[in-house]
């Protein structure tokens, strides 16, 4: 068994869509990023890669590469899952926390949970996602951006 932890944060400022956990969230601003800015999936990818000792998302999908400009993060997650399988790992379970002052995310968490559990090949009872605020403290509390943490347990396939 191996544990992986991932973190990502992006600031608001894009005129594009706000996508979190593969779900489009109605909001007047998107997140500034080289890809689609999905901090939830980026944190999850880092947790998966870290648990398997395969580096991080920046190593596999560098923001200096035109190939990943405006990339759909769900496709990046799929590529990470292929890498895990190639290296003999499967996901046992996962837990995520999104940290955002705005927008309110509770109505979208079930769709994110379903989307990500499916992408990881997990039943819903083995994947959790929740959201919190920073009670108006720091850059997130000032509504300057969104962050996410992910923890996963990986099993080595025999």
What is the secondary structure topology, with strand pairs?
Blueprint lengths: L1 E13 L3 E3 L2 E3 L4 E2 L7 H13 L5 H4 L12 H14 L2 E11 L9 H12 L6 E6 L5 H4 L3 E12 L2
Parallel strand pairs: 5-6
Antiparallel strand pairs: 1-4, 1-7, 2-3, 5-7
Helix pairs in contact: 1-3
Give your account of this protein's structure:
It catalyses: 4-CDP-2-C-methyl-D-erythritol 2-phosphate = 2-C-methyl-D-erythritol 2,4-cyclic diphosphate + CMP. It comes from Nitrosococcus oceani (strain ATCC 19707 / BCRC 17464 / JCM 30415 / NCIMB 11848 / C-107). Its cofactor is a divalent metal cation. Keywords: Isoprene biosynthesis, Lyase, Metal-binding. Belongs to the IspF family. This protein is of the alpha+beta class and 158 residues long. It has a single domain (2-156), classed as 2-C-methyl-D-erythritol 2,4-cyclodiphosphate synthase (60s Ribosomal Protein L30, Chain: A), CATH 3.30.1330. 30% of the residues lie in helices and 32% in strands. The protein has 5 helices and 7 strands. The chain has helices at 39-51, 57-60, 73-86, 109-120, 138-141; strands at 2-14, 18-20, 23-25, 30-31, 89-99, 127-132, 145-156. A 5-stranded mixed β-sheet has the order 4-1-7-5-6. Helix 1 (39-51) runs parallel beside helix 3. It is globular. The termini are close together. The model has no long low-confidence stretch (mean pLDDT 94).
